[in-house]
């Protein structure tokens, strides 16, 4: 992917173009494409989604943005992002114009910095009119994820859990947690395409990065993260949507 900082990858198959997309962050939201996901050398050089950074993420309105996530419906593609400062942002483009033309970048959720922090990930719930979005937050017990729902990608997001802080995955509801927190995760999906669809009739599985609380490193880049998977047991707000 060339020199420089690269982080927060998202991979999906964009069916209209029969092309794989890798979305990730540098200083800006970037993407690379491939026709063969099995060949790690096939990815194209990084390209920018935006020719100019939107005003909403530049001072004095903003403090930058990161952790980009793309999801599409039947007519549009949306890019969600966070800013480590209490905002969930959304941009949009026409499905036929993707990956070009992203515009109308707005804040769709605001809160305290630690409550709407980073690493949002958004999904369509199969056989329903529901979308869910997860956003990483920070508590004294470590990082965790909160959950919201909406009936459309450009709609209003409402809490989707009766747990404190509409928690989705926290130290309080995960058994035998080996990590200090649950960070930068992604649900295991039922397909690979741009709709980011999950099946509520299957146990939710969440892939996340975790770190040993006994290991203290001041430099974030050097934290020895490990991958983990948590699997839902019993009924939850998402499984209740199974039809």
From TrEMBL:
Belongs to the glycosyl hydrolase 62 family. It comes from the Bacteria. It holds the Pfam family Glyco_hydro_62. Its main location: secreted. One of its GO terms (molecular function) is alpha-L-arabinofuranosidase activity. The keyword Protease does not apply. It is an enzyme of class 3 (hydrolase). This is Alpha-L-arabinofuranosidase. It catalyses: Hydrolysis of terminal non-reducing alpha-L-arabinofuranoside residues in alpha-L-arabinosides. Keywords: Glycosidase, Hydrolase, Secreted, Signal. PANTHER family: ALPHA-L-ARABINOFURANOSIDASE, ALPHA-L-ARABINOFURANOSIDASE AXHA-2-RELATED.
């Amino acid at each position: 992917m060339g020199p420089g900082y690269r982080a927060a990858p998202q991979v999906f198959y964009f069916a209209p173009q029969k092309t794989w997309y890798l979305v990730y962050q540098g200083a800006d939201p970037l993407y690379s494409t491939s026709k063969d996901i099995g060949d790690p050398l096939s990815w194209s050089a990084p390209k920018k989604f935006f020719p100019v950074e939107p005003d909403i993420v530049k001072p004095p309105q903003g403090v930058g943005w990161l952790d980009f996530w793309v999801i599409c419906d039947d007519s549009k593609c949306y890019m969600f992002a966070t800013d480590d400062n209490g905002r969930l942002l959304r941009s949009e483009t026409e499905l036929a114009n993707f990956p070009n033309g992203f515009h109308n970048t707005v804040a769709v959720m605001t809160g305290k910095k630690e409550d709407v922090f980073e690493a949002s990930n958004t999904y369509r719930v199969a056989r329903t009119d529901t979308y869910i979005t997860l956003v990483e937050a920070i508590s004294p017990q470590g990082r965790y994820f909160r959950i919201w729902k909406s009936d459309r990608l450009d709609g209003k997001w409402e809490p989707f859990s009766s747990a404190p802080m509409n928690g989705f995955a926290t130290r309080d509801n995960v058994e035998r947690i080996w990590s200090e927190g649950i960070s930068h995760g992604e649900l295991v999906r039922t397909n690979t395409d741009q709709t980011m669809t999950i099946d509520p009739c299957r146990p939710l599985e969440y892939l996340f990065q975790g770190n040993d609380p006994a290991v203290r490193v001041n430099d974030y880049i050097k934290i020895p993260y490990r991958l983990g998977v948590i699997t839902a047991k019993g009924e939850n707000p998402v499984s209740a949507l199974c039809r």
